[in-house]
């Protein structure tokens, strides 16, 4: 079963699969697909809920910063996950920006 996220202008569509063994035969790609899927689920969160609950607000902010970051130094960065899953990171980011109203660019600082 594929899920589609479109920019709304008909120019770009991102398809994400459910991570079944037939689609992602190796566990690393399956994990990466699930990380990306989880971030999209967080971005879809009801604005009323994420504004009123501190924990959800933090999780939402983390997801936005992760998607908007161009950091490639971490194996599970948005850009690296997109590359591994054969998705164009720029097009995916643009589609998510348009679908969920994300703004700005961020750098994520990792704690060693």
Features:
112 residues
Supply Rg: 14 Å
Query: Uncertain regions: pLDDT < 50 for 5+ in a row?
Result: 6-14, 17-22, 105-112
Count of domains: 1
Give the spatial strand order of the biggest sheet. 1-2
DSSP E strands, number: 2
Structural class: mainly alpha
The SSE order reads: EEHHHHH
Number of helical segments with 4 or more residues = 5
What is the approximate shape? globular
Mean pLDDT across residues: 76
Strand content: 5-15%
* Largest sheet entry: 2 strands, antiparallel
For the record, give the distance between the C-alpha atoms at the N and C termini, rounded to a whole number.
Answer: 37 Å
State the share of residues found in helices, binned by percent: 40-55%
Topology record:
Blueprint: E1 2-6, E2 13-17, H1 27-43, H2 47-52, H3 54-68, H4 78-84, H5 89-100
Antiparallel strand pairs: 1-2
Helix pairs in contact: 1-3, 1-4
Write a structural description.
- The protein has 112 residues and is mostly helical.
- The protein has five helices and two strands.
- Strands 1-2 form a two-stranded antiparallel sheet.
- α1 crosses α3 (54-68) and α1 packs across α4 (78-84).
- It is globular and about 40 Å long.
- It starts with a strand and ends in a 12-residue tail after the last helix.
- The model is unreliable at 6-14, 17-22 and 105-112 (pLDDT under 50).
């Amino acid at each position: 079963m594929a899920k589609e996220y479109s920019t709304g202008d008909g120019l770009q569509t991102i398809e994400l699969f459910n991570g079944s063994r037939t689609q992602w035969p190796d566990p690393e790609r399956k994990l990466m697909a699930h990380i990306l899927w989880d971030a999209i689920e967080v971005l879809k969160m009801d604005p009323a809920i994420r504004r009123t609950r501190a924990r959800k607000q933090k999780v939402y902010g983390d997801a936005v910063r992760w998607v908007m970051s161009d950091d490639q130094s971490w194996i599970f960065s948005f850009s690296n996950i997109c590359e591994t899953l054969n998705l164009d990171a720029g097009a995916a980011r643009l589609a998510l920006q348009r679908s969920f109203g994300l703004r700005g660019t961020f750098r994520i600082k990792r704690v060693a």
